[in-house]
């Protein structure tokens, strides 16, 4: 699927069947895959056989969901409204086998996570979590000094310094224990 133009079909390459071939999968949604901007720098994520990617149609942004097994598309709206302001990078992750977004709001003391719990093509349900793992450290602004660089299989979030000086600090946050 081209990322520089609007399209209404997707090309699928089948591997492992003895012969490689492309075919077109139709979608009911004309859309334009979008790799992100300075605040939402993610291209997509594949979780349990479902590909999720950011999409744009006119001035509207949403998430496209492509089920690899059934080769069907559906549209998911973001769990936050447009007025929600992120201070720094928002990351699309796979959390416990589910699509999730992790970010932080201005001030950097709290981590926000939205997890796509379940749903059908007509209605998806998100859970919202807020963690304050470093709230007991005065003068530490998590996102000014650290950035989310990844997630462990068990769900721990990994933060590393934005700049390295004499020491290297890595912060592991277990959302199940609220930091």
Automatic annotation (TrEMBL):
Q: Where is the F-box associated beta-propeller type domain?
A: 5-177
Which Pfam family, just one, is annotated for this protein?
A: FBA_3
InterPro entries xref list:
F-box-assoc_dom_typ3 (IPR013187), F-box-assoc_interact_dom (IPR017451)
- Mind telling me which residue stretches traverse the membrane in this protein? none
UniProt superkingdom: Eukaryota
Family matches, as NCBIfam families: F_box_assoc_1
Q: Which PANTHER family match?
A: BNAA05G37150D PROTEIN-RELATED (PTHR31111), F-BOX ASSOCIATED DOMAIN-CONTAINING PROTEIN (PTHR31111:SF138)
- Name this polypeptide is given: F-box associated beta-propeller type 3 domain-containing protein
Instruction: Specify the species.
Output: Eruca vesicaria subsp. sativa (Garden rocket)
